[in-house]
Amino acid sequence: MVETGGKNGPVLGDSGNALGPLQIHRSYYIDSRTPGSYDQVADLRYATKVYRNYMRRYATASRLGRVPTAQDVARIHNGGPNGYKKSSTIKYWNKVRKYYESSNSL
Question: Is 14 a catalytic residue?
């Protein structure tokens, strides 16, 4: 919802550099080591696999030195492997948190 407002399919973002419902960049896809092709991230099920593989690689307790939080995961998704440390990803986290809090209060 935060990335595309719930739109599915070959949605382009970030000036054409991100694709699909999770707005995955090609470098993110490559880093995820998910078999298939980049164009498949337009499909939500496949994009979710890419996201999970990426997080298994970068959002880990051994890498962060603690159990990753929802904030860590959101900021890594937005800012890359070290996104959880970047001040530039705080605005994205606030969007995610706002959506999460509103959807859980229903």
Answer: yes
